[in-house]
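User: two proteins, same treatment. go.

Assistant:
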Amino acid sequence: MPRWLYTVLLTLAFPFVFLRLWLRGRASPAYRLRWRERLGRAPSDASMLTRPIWLHAVSLGETLAARPLVEAIREHYPDVPLLITTMTPTGSAQVRALWGDDNADFAHVYAPYDFPWAVRRFLAHWQPRALVIMETELWPNTLVAARARGIPVMLANARLSERSARGYERAGLLGAELMRQLTVVAAQDEATAERFCLLGVPSNQVVRTGSVKFDLAVPEHLHDDAARWRVAWSLLQRSVWVAASTHAGEDEIVLAAHRAILQTHPEALLILVPRHPERFDAVAKLISNEGLQAVRRSSHELVGANTQVLLADSMGELLLWLAMAKVAFVGGSLLAPGGGHNALEPLAVGVSTLTGPHYTNFQSINDTLIAAGALTVVSSAAELAQAVLARFDDPELLQRQRAAGAAVMAANQGAVGRQLELLAPWLGEGA
C-alpha cells in the first residue's frame, strides 16, 4: 500500500478516531480532554522550548522504559530542552509523575495523530532538532514530515517481534518507506537488529545496544520509604506480594490465588496494581464481590490488621509497592494474546519475580531471565499461589532468585550509555 492511500484511508477514518476517544472517555474521562494537542496544536500554557529533542513514548510502558535515557540526557546535557509526547492518558500521567510540570527546558503534550496537516503544524511549532521514538511506534506521515524538515530519527530501545516484522513486510511500499526514514536503530537484541536489516534499514544504521530497562536506577530513598510504610501499616510480620500491571480477566485469577494463599498464610497482604486507571473502580467492585477486606490507596486509609488487599489505584508508586513485597507477579501475561510487561522493575528492586506464559513483548529479555533462574513462569491461579507460597516459606529460594536477577541485571547494563552516544551528534551546542 502506498502512503497516499494510507493517508486517504486515515482521513476517511477521522470522525471515527475521535468517536473512539469519546467512547473510551466513558470509562476514563481523560480521553475526552486535550483533543487540540492530538491535532498538532500546542496548549496555550505550554513552555516555549528552543529546538528541543522530541522523545515519543506511546503509553505507560514506553514512558517507564524512557526514564533512564531521559534522566541521562538531563544529567549530561542539562541545557538541551526536552519535549516528551505520549498517546494515552496513562502515559501522560506517568510523564507528569516522573518529571513534573512544564518549565523552561521541558514540556509534555500528546503527539499529533498521523494526519499530514496535524504533523506539519506540530513540527512548525516545536521545531525539534531530533526525534527519538521509544521501542516501535512508527507513523508514516510523521516520519516522512520529520525527515523532510531535516530532523534525524532514532528508534531507541527498539524491539521488533517476528510477527511485527511480517506485518511491515506485508505493508509493501509503505513498510519500505517507513524503514528509509530511520536514521539509526538502537536494537535491544540481535534478533531485532537482524529483522530491521532484513526490512531494508542499512546495517551500518542498526546498532545492538541492549535494553535501557536493565539500567533502571532505583531511587536511593526507596527502601527507606518502604521500611517506613511497613512500620506505619504494621507489615513487619506479614507476608506481602504484589500483582503488578494486571489486565482485565487476570484480576480474578490473582484474587483466586490470594484466597488460596490466605488458607495457610492468613496474614498475607496482596497489593493489586491494575495496569489501566479506567479499571480501578471495576477492580474495587470485583474485590468486594469476592468478600475480601480491601483498602484503596486513593482513600488514604491505613492498611489494618484485617486488610487482605491493598488496591493500588495511584500512579507512579509501583516501585514503592515492589520494595515492600517479597514476591511480585507481572501481569499482562496470563491470558492470550497478552504480551507481558517489564519484569526488570521488580528484579531491580530485589524482588523474587513471576510472570505468565504470554510475554512476546519481552521475549528475549524474559528468556534470558528464565534461563538464569531469575524469573518463574506460572499459568494458573493454582500455580501462582503455589509459587508465591514457596517463596514465603523458603527464604533460600527467595534469595537465590533475587541473586540471579541481580546478576542478570548487572551483566546487561550499559545500554543507556550506548544509546546516549548514538544521540550525541544531535545533543551538542551546534546541533
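Protein 2:
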Amino acid sequence: MRDPRADRPAETGARASVEAIFREEHGRLLAALVRRFGDLDLAEEVASEAVEAALVRWPVDGVPPNPGGWLMTTARRRAVDRLRRDKAYAARLAILQVEADRAEPVPPAEAGDGLPDERLRLFFTCSHPALSAEDRGALMLRCLGGLTTPEVARAFLVPPATVAKRIVRAKKKISQARIPFRVPGPDELPERLPGVLQVVYSIFTEGYAASAGPDLQRLDLAEEAIRLARILRRLLPAEREVAGLLALMLLIHARRAARTGTGGELVLLDEQDRGRWDRAMIEEGLALVPAALTGGPPGPYGVQAAIAALHDEAADVATTDWPQIVALYDVLLALTPSPIVEVNRAAAVALRDGPAAGLALLDALAAEPRLRAYTPYATARADLLERLGRRAEAAAAYRQALALAGTEPERAHLRRRLAALESPGEA
C-alpha cells in the first residue's frame, strides 16, 4: 500500500508556491478582476477559488510556467461561470461596468512607460470620499495590500473584529454608491491622494517590520510599496508628498541588509554595519528630499524623509544630529499628532538629553490606549529603564514587550535582553 505521507512534501511545496505567488500577484489579480467585472466581492471570491484550485492541481500537475496567468485565467473563468448562472447579477454588473467606463478619463501617463497598473486604479477607487477614512484604509490594506486582518489591525492599533466590520462596511458602500473604477481627475486628486499614500506606506511598514512570523522583514511587501510609489511619482511628478513618501521608503529600505544578522537575528540601529547599507538607494532617496520640502509648507512624508536622511548621512549613532531630528519631530507632531510620533520623538530626546528625559516623555504617554499593544513603546521604556539602572522595572517592561512582540527575531532579542538583566552575574 502506498504511504499517503509520500505526497506530503509535494503538497507542502505546492502550497508554499501558491502562497508565495498569491502574495506577489494578489493585488494585481484582484484589480484586474474588478476592472473586468466591476464587483469587489465577486473578485475576492473567485480569486480565492483560483487559489484553492491551484492547491489541488499544482501538486499533481506541477507549478505552471506562468503561475500568475494561471490564477488569472482560472479566476476569470469562475467569474464568468457564476455570472452565467445568475442573469440578474450579470445584468447589474453590466450596468456598473458601463457607468465606470463612461466616467473614466484616460490618464496621459498610460500612453508610455509610466503606465500605472490596475492596482493604483483600485487604490483610488477605495479612497473615494464617500467612504470614511477608517473604512477605506482598512479595505485598501486588506484587499489591495494583501495584508491579513490581524496585520491591518496592527497598522491601526485596533482589534481585528473592528477591522473586519470596517471592510464589510466599505465594500457595501462602494456597491451602493456605484463608485467607478478609475483614477480621479485633477480636481479630485488632493482629497484622494493622502489615503493612497497612507496605504502604500502601511504596506511598506508591514514589510519593514512584520507584525508576525519567523522573519523580521517581509522584503516583498516593502519592495512592492516602493514600486507603487515609483509609479505614483511618474504619474504625479508635481506632488511633493509623493516625492517625500518615495524618499522616506528608499532611505529606510536602504538599511535592510544590516537590520538582521547571519541567522536572521535583529540588529539594532546603533549596532548595524553601515557599510552594508545600500548607498545607491540612499543617494536616490536623498536626491528626492529637496523636492519634498520645497515649494510650500512641508508635508508629513517630507518631514519623515528628512529625519531618515539625517540617520543615513551620519557615520554612527553618536554623531547623528539629534537636536535637528527632535526639531523635525516637533514639526511632524504639529502636522500629524500621534502617540506613535510621540514615542519616536521621546527616543530621539533620550539620545539628545539623556535617558531620564526620554523616559519622562514615555511615561507621560502611559494612559494612551493605542500604545498598550504597541511593542516599540514597551521596548523603548525597557531600554531606557535599563540604561538608568532600574533593573527590576526594566525586566517588567521587557516582559511586557515580549508578550506583544509578533516576530521571532523580536522575541529572541527581547529574551536575550531580559536574560541579561535577570542573570546573577550581571547584577
